[in-house]
Amino acid sequence: MPIAGTVSPSANRAPLGPVAIIGLLFFIMGFFTWINGPLIAFVKLAFDLDDVNAFLVPMAFYLSYFFLALPSAAVFKRTGMKRGMAIGLLVIAAGAMVFGQFVSMRLYPGALTGLFVIGAGLSLLQTAANPYISIVGPIESAAQRIAWMGICNKVAGILAPLLLGAVVLSDVGGLAQSLKTADAATRDILLNAFAQKIHTPYMIMAGVLAVLAVGILRSPLPDIRAAEANRGEPAATGAKRGVLAFPHLWLGVLCLFVYVGAEVMAGDAIGTYGAGFNLPADQTKFFTSFTLVAMLLGYVAGLVLIPKYISQQRYLAVSASLGVVLSLCAWTTQGYVSVAFVAALGFANAMMWPAIFPLAIRSLGEATERGAALLIMGIAGGAIIPQAFAVLKQHYDFQFVFLALMAPCYLYILYYGLAGYRVGLREGDAE
């Protein structure tokens, strides 16, 4: 029987109020995550960087998840969910202020520090929000609930590049042409003015986040006891089981690592991929939004199909197979057609996180918070795999490098969807 003030995860439907609040948090996470794609193009121009250094944007952002996921779990044990989420929003606000200030000063290490701080705040939110939405209702339909969260996330992700493109990256092609013929003094004036354009938007976002933090503290968001809500069949000895006793979790961490790497490649790196065909910068700055539109369609398909027509693990295997096919199609085509296949990977990627996360934390019981934190650490794949792309494409054909990185990722996800998710679980818990 649930304790007063908590959500009963055994109910047939997840309570609407908490789901709506978590949906707002996923919107915020999506906005700050998917703005990284056009930010790569922005910092490349504002700081006069090559691709390898420009791709330090996703590296600094996603590495923060690796270093701070476990500390985030410790914070939530001490503060509780509501206060922890409010702290997360305040940390993001602080990171936005740092990023906006240092970019306007054209100090790249400071700007990267701001992105790392933003990632730290998002790590707090992710560590709480994903297990919360997974176990607030029946675990069998968790992928469907996370799909709704994904829609909130990707709507924000579609808006972020469009807003940044309109407010900050307007006439970026014309600026690039002017810089080619400008003398050193004029070049500095133009770049300083360009960098300054990002200051006000980030300060406004910081203020909004601070207000939302107060709103979360005053919200009716209840707590869930994860140890009770996500308990599997008890062990024969009655002993507690730590995360080391769940190989399906560790396989899931690796699965999430390669998935996030593939997702960031299709979303954030698509502009750089398009630039490889010498497509104009005024067009490539919007390519991230095309990938996210495809992801949005993928979430809608997942909502219709899971779990009524297909299980979340089977859909994961189908999505991974589609990822392999689309990667091959991108490799064998050129120009806008190839870019379109990369954007279409958004459809294949859409339901992967919603399926992987609940499958990986299934039946963890008292180890749920620690397991969720380990999974959030897997988000570091978004730092490593795109950076490998930026480095390797300097020496090899960029389309071949893209395929060589993406195909193994999707093949491992295919394995997890077919067999890896049930390794080490008892028969009743694996179903």
Question: Explain this structure to me?
Answer:
By secondary structure, the protein is mainly α. The protein is 75% helix and 0% strand. It has 22 helices and no strands. It has helices at 16-34, 36-46, 51-54, 56-79, 81-104, 108-135, 142-167, 172-181, 184-196, 199-217, 226-229, 247-267, 270-275, 281-284, 287-305, 312-332, 335-349, 352-361, 368-377, 381-392, 398-418, 427-430. Helix 2 runs antiparallel to helix 9 (184-196) and helix 7 packs across helix 18 (352-361). The longest helix has 28 residues, at 108-135. The two termini are 24 Å apart. 55% of the residues are buried.
Q: In angstroms, what is the radius of gyration?
A: 21 Å
- Strand segment tally: 0
Coarse morphology = globular
Biggest sheet overview: none
Q: Helix- and strand-based class? A: mainly alpha
What portion of residues is helical? over 70%
- How confident is the prediction overall: mean pLDDT? 85
| Parts with pLDDT < 50 across at least 5 consecutive residues | 1-11, 233-239
- How many angstroms does the end-to-end distance come to? 24 Å
Secondary-structure element string: HHHHHHHHHHHHHHHHHHHHHH
Total helical elements:
22
